[in-house]
Each structure stands twice: as structure tokens, then as C-alpha cells.
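ok so I'm stuck.
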Amino acid sequence: MANAPRMTLQTMLVLRAMLADPAKRRFGLELCAETGQPSGTIYPILARLEHFGWIEGHKESAAEHLAEGRRARYYYTLTDEGAVRARAALDQARRSRGAAANLRPATS
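replied:
not stuck anymore, here's the structure
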């Protein structure tokens, strides 16, 4: 079993959004708006990131959501290790893209 989630474009968008302010807690629909991805894409990514320990999720307290008159939200925050691994994964993806762009077609 791999020790990291698959680095799809959508996963990278979520990680970039979370790394913009690593300490900030975010809820799923907020990440949908930030990344432009639908909830059916975001929530499975969040579940995978949580499974690998890159993020932690927690349900807000009743006092928080009742005070605002809305349903409870499930918030996600990057773990310290998750932030380090996310930065490394994004750097690796950037380097891979750069290397691929430098490939030249074979000449005949």
C-alpha cells in the first residue's frame, strides 16, 4: 500500500488551497469554491488525505453552528507532517512537469 495519495490535478488543487494558510481550518464547500471542483470530487480527496494523515478532520461544536443558525460543518486542517509532505509532493509534480516540458521529440 502506498504511503501517499495519488497526485491528481484535483488533489494538487486541494493541497495548494490548504497550503495557502496551513493553520486555517476549512470545510468542504469552502474548498469547492476555492478550487472550482465539485463536492463529489473534493470529499473523496479529503477522505484520502485524512486516511494518509495529511489532514485531520473534526466536526464543529454545537455552540459554533447553532450560534450561526446553520448545520454543523466538518472542518479539515493540515497536519504538520501533511504540510511538509504536501509541499514536497507539489514540488515534485512541478519538477516532473518541467522535465516533461523539456523533452524533445526524437529526430529521424
